[in-house]
């Protein structure tokens, strides 16, 4: 039997991801039209591996921020993909180290809580960490997605 070992997550990769997230948060904090930033997926869950990308969602009404040049300029590297997922515009940037950063730029309505959109719910349920939330939009979304709020009376 052949056993495949997961690539070990290095401290250097972890530091790079934290630096990328810090860079996005600092950028967002300078822009009032950016209403929130969250990390989702494996890095938010604490299950990232060396080949994991880092997924960042940016809530904004400014469509200019869905242009690839914003993110390649801010994060360094080259765009390797862009796609539309409902209201979310995905821009994937590969940094010189090989780390892929997936930025999802979406309108603030993506975080609406009455009701929470099914696609948004899946993203939040898969793991999320709020990193910039000046108006509490993402805190409200996170609270609305808690299982006990969605299904009162059920206990895990």
Total count of helical runs of at least 4 residues = 6
Given helix and strand content, the structural type is alpha+beta
Helix content: 25-40%
The amount of beta strand, in percent, is 25-35%
Biggest sheet record:
6 strands, mixed
Strands ordered across the widest β-sheet: 3-4-5-2-1-6
Number of strands: 6
Description:
The structure is a single chain. 33% of the residues lie in helices and 26% in strands. The protein has 156 residues and is α+β, with helices and mostly antiparallel strands. The chain has a six-stranded mixed β-sheet, with helices on both faces. It is globular. The N and C termini lie far apart (37 Å). The C terminus is likely disordered.
Question: Which properties best describe this structure?
Answer:
about 160 residues, alpha+beta, 6 helices, 6 strands, about 35% helix, disordered C terminus
